[in-house]
Amino acid sequence: MAVLNDEQTMLRDMAREWADNEAPTTAFRKMRDAAPVEGYDADAWAAMGQMGWAGVIIPEEFGGSAFGYLSLGLVLEQLGRNLAASPLAATAAASTAIALGDNEAAKAEWLPRIAAGEIVATLAIDEGPVHDPAKTATRVTDGKLTGTKQFVAEGDGAQLFVVSAVDGLYLVSGDVGVSRSARHMADSRSHAQVVFDGAKAEKLGGTDLTAKVVDRATAALCAEMLGMAEQAFAVTNDYLKVRVQFGQQLSTFQALQHRMAKMFTELELARSAVEGALEAIDAGRSDVDQAVSLAKAIMGDTLHLVSREMVQLHGGIGMTDEHDAGLYLKRAYVLETMWGNAAWHRERFARLNGY
Amino acid sequence: MATAAELDVSVNPLDAFRTEVREWLAANFPPALKGKDNAMSAIDGPTDLSADEAAWKKAMGDKGWGVPTWPAQYGGGGLDRGQARVLQEEMGRIGAWNPIGGMGVMMFGPTLLEYGNEAQKSEHIPAIAKGEVRWCQGYSEPGAGSDLASLQMFAEDKGNHYVVNGQKTWTSGGQWADKCFALVRTDKSKKHEGISFLLIDMTSPGVEVKPIRLISGSSPFCETFFTDVKVPKENLVGQEGEGWTIGKRLLQHERQNLSGGGSAAGRMFAGKSVSALAKEYRGLDDQGRVTDSDLRMRIVRHEMDSRAFMLTLRRAALESKSNQGPSAATSIMKNVGARITQDRAELSIEIMGMNGLGWEGEGFTDEELTQTRTWLWGKAVSIYGGSSEIQNNVIAKRILGMLDHQ
Ligand SMILES: Cc1cc2nc3c(=O)[nH]c(=O)nc-3n(C[C@H](O)[C@H](O)[C@H](O)COP(=O)(O)OP(=O)(O)OC[C@H]3O[C@@H](n4cnc5c(N)ncnc54)[C@H](O)[C@@H]3O)c2cc1C
Q: Which one of B292, B335, B354 makes the best mutation probe of the A interface by having the most chain A beta carbons within 10 Å?
């Protein structure tokens, strides 16, 4: 665990307590079965807004607390542990685009509202099923944006879209020229196809901004994945200590002990990589791109391993919908895929290092 | 020693048989059903058969070719292995498939043929051969999974019948089954030797099934409760206390099927290969390579694993045919088969990206939606029929002679 200051420790503890009391996996199930159009738990989101979580990375002058990415990561990690269905990660990513861009009017208009938790915002980057920010056909002419974005997280409920076009990032805040179609995916969260047909758009910055923002969104996602993996591991470890077969607890079998030890090892490495990426962002380092690819590749592989082992080591019960293992498995594969999977980031890491 | 006829291909006796098969298939297999294999419905749930499907099932059932090597006196095809292979080849050639399936065919039938008495075989085998009766497997209990022999469901001796009380779980197809082959305890003082193999009619009073939903969204298995269920003594297979031996033999048949022996192998490799899928979804670079080099290497590894597995299946078949006894290679089949099945699903989804993770509704092709469910369902392959961990324990102990932790 990164060395935290007092504020961060408090934030983490509060987030953990809140997630355990107010957003356990049973709350996610309830949301899933009720299937609201927006794809998240509106009450929970309102509570997060009141706690100031939407403003953790927003500058103080715009109503945020400017705690930074490591702090945002601490919150997302706690939410990820319980699969809390919130638009926090998407909204934070969009707010980064506004904050890092050079459109001062947009900052003044939107950041305070986002910080107050009034607005759900999201990034609309990919135009196909596999992450590839370079493959962008979306264009803006005379302030009107046209293009089709796929699998936009929180796209069903977002009021504000940060959209990538060939020449950079744009903000689309209106409904005119925007149509969304839900994409029901295995993780039961919101992913929409969003078609922009001459939607009014304001420029936030060039393609360098797009890259910067996607890296930050990816780092935040890694924190959520870390929380999921930690919890999937903990639940499995606990189960092996109570399930008895052959007259003894499963945890007494060395074959399983070593499997758990291996996962624990991978998790420690993943935590370092994820916290490393978040810290690199906070420190304003120039190698954020590398740190993020390292984090996403290692975190992706680790979550892949742990979520699959969770099902396997629970045996038959792990295959049932009634148990949480399947929820982690399904969400894991979606997040592994989002913003580039492990293979994609390994490739990018090689490129960034000149080989 | 091979006979002269076997050595001389020109007078291969199988040729005449091949002609007969070809003619029979031409007359009986409805061409409209080509490639539309729905045999898994025998486990996955009842399907309304189309007229063509019903006719095809009846034809194969009457001929006994759904269970080609079972004895003809019980409604089987009575074919030898060579003939059965010819039948399979000829069916494959025209896209015909076996409409007779399920646990009766895969596991219970072969076991009953070995251990059942005359009355039991005459009663149950023909109905399985015709695909008229569905069987389910009552082995696992909430407290007895990998440690199956710790099962508690008790059959109390009441003279001419037993009274059964207890619970089974993960009973695949329990809600659709007509009958259940169950492992029950007839003696509480012994572990393995206290187990018996009993056939239970699922329509008996006191049998209750409660379907359980899987992570893939379907409900193909059940919790099954037995309360004072009366079971006639004639339904005991073998002797009291012999259930563990018989039950294990049945598991061998189950594993052989799961590992890709029999028709499962065809199904495992049916459809598009992962490399074909990658070409379609990811495209090739200007040198003809799948563009994602990391993915490409993992596809190669998977496809090489699959080839090696097929070669191993073939080698094991040849070795056992040449009467060297069961090949040691059979012990690895279930785990390798499970791994390949799961790798294939994982890779397919990775290739499809977000399209491979669709659940329902607009925006996904049928192929993509099926892929998601196949992936999730496939997680069970390394759990049921003896988990991969248990298989590895078996390899370590039985094949490698390793000792238990003292
Ligand atoms: C889809 C599906 C269909 C099924 N259909 C049927 C059916 O029709 N009829 C039926 O009777 N049963 C059925 N089963 C049950 C299946 O056989 C059991 O799930 C299986 O035997 C594992 O038992 P368990 O679930 O109790 O897991 P457990 O035995 O509790 O095992 C949990 C985990 O611990 C591991 N483990 C256990 N013991 C050891 C050990 N000694 N060393 C190392 N690792 C160990 C296991 O491998 C597993 O990973 C089905 C299961 C599934 C998932």
A: B354
